[in-house]
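#structure-requests
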Amino acid sequence: MRTALLQSSGRPGSTVENLKVLDEAAGRAAAAGAGLLVAPEMFLTGYAIGDDIARLAEPADGDCADAIAESATRHGLAIAYGYPERSGDTVFNAAQLISADGTRLANYRKTHLFGCFERDHFTPGDQPVVQAELDGLRVGILICYDVEFPENVRAHALARTDLLIVPTAQMHPFQFVAESMIPVRAFENQMYVAYVNRVGREGEFEFVGLSTLAGPDGVSRTRAGRGEELVLADVDPVLLAACREENPYLKDRRPGLYGSLI
């Protein structure tokens, strides 16, 4: 499945403009043969927008989700995007996957919040593994900081996630996560990892870009630079199966020894 990574910070504070940016990217991705477009963390509203996070937060089935479902259907590809999800009086840092026929397939709430900014504006989620079936692949979702905890990605590996999509807002000086950690996570857990970042300065943060699709062999299939960019690469189930056959990590685990970890 050809996968498109939209590296962009959109237009912080404007869901209307960000829906336009996402729709335009969906058109370009579909024209290039992509079956899935992934946008960054909090793409729908912007990340460093303070109290506007709560003001712009919507339910998972809100008006913006409907607009993205229409875009996915019109362009004929699935779309995953980050947004602030409102549930009653609670706001989560969430990511949603919508299929090419407009069906809401999966909604994930970030479980590990990073820094005072996120802890001031969001409630952490409590469901570690969220998955959906898409074009014969088992797709899982994490958000940014979540992927830096090996336990999270290993839980997806044990649940047989094939492609882990990670909308992110990775900032300076932590670019080593995109450059080094993500390919290692893909290799040690035998999956593809689509890590899709924001770019440029936003409030107090400077996002570093470097979005990548890393394969189960630890090789990045595509790598964006530091600016706004749409990059594409293929998720190959044949390679995935071959790597899982050759790499013994998951088969050689000894869970009985790991009790002290929890």
